[in-house]
Amino acid sequence: MIHFSNPCILLVIFQTTFTEVQFGPMKLIKDPLQVLLVFAKEDSQSNGFCWACEKANFRCSIARTPELALECFLEKHHDLVIIDHRHSRHFDAEALCGPDREEASVMPLINAGFNRRYVENANMMACYNELLQLEHGEVRSQFKLRAGKAIFTALEQSQEAIEITSEDQVIQYVNPAYESIMGYQQGELIGKEIIEVPKSEKNKPDLLETINSCIRKGKEWQGIYYAKKKNGDSIQQNVKITPVMGQGGLPILLATVGALMLNLNCVMQNVLSSPDIQSSKHKDRRKGSLDVRSTTSRGSDGSSQRRHSSMARIHSMTIEAPITKVINIINAAQESSPMPVAEALDRVLEILRTTELYSPQLGTKDEDPHTNDLVGGLMTDGLRRLSGNEYIFSTKQPHHIPSHLITPLSLNDIPPRITQTMENEDSWDFDIFNLEAATMKRPLTYLGLKIFSRFGVCEFLNCPEATLRSWLQVIEANYHSTNSYHNSSHAADVLHATAYFLCKERVKQSLDPIDEVAALIAATVHDVDHPGRTNSFLCNAGSELAILYNDTAVLESHHAALAFQITTRDDKCNIFKNIERNEYRTLRQAIIDMVLATEMTKHFEHVNKFVNSINKPLAESVKSILTSPENRILVKRMLIKCADISNPCRPLELCIEWAGRISEEYFAQTDEEKRQGLPVVMPVFDRNTCSIPKSQISFIDYFITDMFDAWDAFADLPNLMQHLDNNFKYWKGLDERKLHSLRPPPE
């Protein structure tokens, strides 16, 4: 109760009359608020409240006597009653509010007494503000409490077993269905700690820790859980535990809903819990199968029973795929959704049932031929239209190093001019083309020696520097110097980018030493023996490599396999020969996984998984995600992917050079496809008509921007993002001038 001097009493009566109130997912719609003014005579104060009611669109009634006030209230049951307390000679306002006076008193109908005083102020805005405070504060709170009672009534009637506990795991509520299924009498469990309730031995030992870990992060947990009934029998539950978050982000309640499988095919659908309303809301059981079309059509041909049986078998499986859980949740949500939402969810389910969840769907070629050709050429395994003139790209024997190239080279023996060229190799702006020229197109060996030494790779592998040198030389010898782009300079550039990323603090926190070594080796070998043609070309040409690897990740599989063949066939270059077997297997698996991650058909899958599993939890300050083995794999994949196609994030001159080289390689492929009568994978890359600026714009828009936004959010790379922005503007400028070349014409 609030007291002020010289008051006019404001008595609040709580009724359910509102225009519209949103309470979690509930929408409560009622008539406008009704206000009763009990004033003995008309004056500026009563007029102030009348004007305020009109401004607020409230309905207002005026009574001059206690008898008329009671009659008026009984007729309309007002939400707010404002009683004048300034002129006691006309009537006693407190007595009118008091429970002792029966005649002309509204108190038999409401809680005793008044609950708010208002300092006399006839200003309309003051009255208006007072009314709004009452509406949005006390009246609406009481209104929501009544809605909360309705929700608990629904929980009481629900056939699903529902349990609510405090953050201290004290049981605060179980509904009758829970008590009935578990064999307890009414109220037996209330107030008990969960640890006092017997647990089944069938649960996995780490299950409780997994559940608690989810709850601490504010996430719900859903899965199979075994509970023990009062009589000692174990019962399998399909359980959802939802934390209801309180102030400060800490869980104050846990709403547990169990679909208990009592008999072979008797399954109860989960109630979906909503933290927004801090309670559970009941939804009807959905007896449909996983086919949403069958459930929305509601056929009466007897198929409903078959679908119910099928659903029961799926729910009773102890191993359930995540996609099945997603589809089940959508099915349940669709049950009580409006028709437009249900139809939209139909479309969602159609998409989820495809196998190509991450593959982009482009428009017609007329919309953006450059993007369409790039995506088609890089993300498919060929058009599968063989002309009869199959191009036989055979698997060749690995190249041996010519004897005149085998030199007793160590870091101390590197010529001064090459050493000087590599002085700033730890900088992102390092110029790989200067090193290419200084080493006569052998940059990988020299840069590899320096970077591997900086990261202590020889010490980790327990191999002599001479072995590492021989290995680098033989790997570089198996890159094709005749390729304009996919040669050892590209490998050296990717190795440089990988080393740069490995020095970033967040990356160092995420990876172990074995991960760093794997990343450096994977970068070195990731395109070894690349023929300068895309996977689509090799598949269309019917090459031996495409046949060997079943048209699936052809080049990437070849790069990884050949790298290990080269390394292990000769002790002189076998950098793995001195490490323990299990460590070798771990290292080998990591290298293979990273090399395969450079294949573009899974580009969007890798980026999306990285964003959802790492970026989003980090944004919510969930640091523990950095150390899980699954997420370390995602970091390594993202690292090598960004290193592999980082050209648009290099300084402008380097970016332009790389753009020219990749364009030339694609031009050569188009020329050969035309000569051989093969399908032209990327028709836009015709050297006579191609716009290089447009192709770069498409590549940046479609592949680079989102990926590097995510990588920058993780590793903090403002300099790269600035280069990317500058380079994009450069290509846009050329395109706006209708230029097709790498550079504008000379002034």
From TrEMBL:
The keyword Calcium does not apply. SUPFAM superfamilies: HD-domain/PDEase-like, PYP-like sensor domain (PAS domain). GO terms for molecular function: 3',5'-cyclic-AMP phosphodiesterase activity; metal ion binding. It is an enzyme of class 3 (hydrolase). Pfam families: PAS, PDE8A_N, PDEase_I. Pathway: Purine metabolism; 3',5'-cyclic AMP degradation; AMP from 3',5'-cyclic AMP: step 1/1. Keywords: cAMP, Hydrolase, Metal-binding, Phosphoprotein, Signal. Residues 147-218 form the PAS domain. Its EC number is 3.1.4.-. Residues 293-303 have a biased composition (Low complexity). Residues 1-23 form the signal peptide. Zn(2+) 2 binds at D527. AMP binds at H486, N487, S488, S489, H490, D527, D644, Q696. Its cofactor is a divalent metal cation. Binds 2 divalent metal cations per subunit. Site 1 may preferentially bind zinc ions, while site 2 has a preference for magnesium and/or manganese ions. Residues 410-738 form the PDEase domain. Belongs to the cyclic nucleotide phosphodiesterase family. PDE8 subfamily. Hydrolyzes the second messenger cAMP, which is a key regulator of many important physiological processes. May be involved in maintaining basal levels of the cyclic nucleotide and/or in the cAMP regulation of germ cell development. Binding to RAF1 reduces RAF1 'Ser-259' inhibitory-phosphorylation and stimulates RAF1-dependent EGF-activated ERK-signaling. Protects against cell death induced by hydrogen peroxide and staurosporine. This is Phosphodiesterase.
